[in-house]
Write a structure and sequence with these properties.
single chain; 268 residues; mainly alpha; 2 domains; two-stranded antiparallel sheet; 2 strands; 2% strand; globular
């Protein structure tokens, strides 16, 4: 990267951070009367406003996160997407345990989950995971440590939700399933080298969770849903464990060019 280009990215980084802080402090959603809509809009604004800062970090660090799709990627992607789809209330709606209460704000939910999916995946899988892998080494041990640490940080950061949702039990549950989702997406990125698979899984998962929270009433977690979820979780866990144990360190994605490649590119 040329020095001039890097300067532009650094300027964009600081401008984006300043904008994010301003939007957080001077909440532009205070005038929205409906609390549900206000929460959705606020979360969407904050997450989307953070994306330029994270993209700037990726550019400055020269990370490569969009490997060309390959056929074997589906062995990683499809099971993860099944887990994400299972987070939707399709079973309780089908058996009558829950009913659709409807809301015109479903479009806001869609915008919000896309913003969250892009921002969080770029930050935790797009930046943190490659840096951890670089720090701990492209070995079996380094791979496992990087996956576990990045997913743990992703889960623990959700304790910040206590600021706007002072419900410890609910936040603890968020921390738990966010850690598991983080591990799933970390394995997905290491298997495919493409961050957009992770964004898709994260977005669909959050959309299903939003439907459960805002648009469905009744018993969402009925017995068939619990049994289906447990069976799928165990099956997918075993499948990913097999894929990760099978993964060779030399087959891991190269997220950042070696120094000599960078220098060669800059001198060309």
């Amino acid at each position: 990267m040329k020095i001039g280009n890097e300067l532009v990215w650094r300027i964009l980084l600081w401008i984006s951070l300043a904008l994010f802080v301003a939007l957080y402090i001077f909440d532009p959603t205070k005038g929205i009367g409906d609390e549900q809509n206000r929460q959705l809009v606020r979360m969407a604004i904050l997450r989307i406003s953070a994306i330029p800062a994270i993209v700037s970090c990726i550019a400055i660090l020269r990370l490569r996160l969009c490997a060309r799709p390959r056929g074997k990627n589906f062995a990683f992607f499809l099971p993860a997407m099944l887990v994400a789809l299972n987070n939707s209330p399709w079973l309780p709606l089908a058996d009558g345990s829950a009913v659709w209460k409807g809301n015109a704000a479903i479009g806001l939910l869609a915008i919000q989950v896309v913003g969250v999916g892009i921002m969080e995946e770029l930050a935790f899988r797009g930046v943190l995971l490659p840096l951890l892998l670089e720090r701990f080494g492209r070995t079996k041990k380094g791979m496992w440590v990087s996956v576990l640490l990045s997913s743990a940080v992703f889960g623990l950061i959700h304790f910040a939700n206590l600021i706007e949702m002072p419900n410890l039990a609910a936040v603890l549950m968020q921390v738990g399933y966010s850690t598991l989702l983080g591990a799933l997406c970390a394995a997905l990125l290491l298997g495919t080298g493409n961050i957009w698979y992770c964004v898709a899984v994260h977005t669909v998962y959050n959309f299903g969770g939003g439907l459960n929270t805002y648009f469905v009433e009744g018993t969402v977690w009925d017995l068939p849903t619990v049994l289906c979820t447990v069976f799928m979780a165990v099956a997918v866990f075993c499948w990913y464990l097999y894929l990760m144990l099978k993964q060779k360190p030399e087959d891991l994605p190269v997220f950042r060019k070696k120094k000599e490649e960078k220098d060669g590119g800059e001198n060309a």
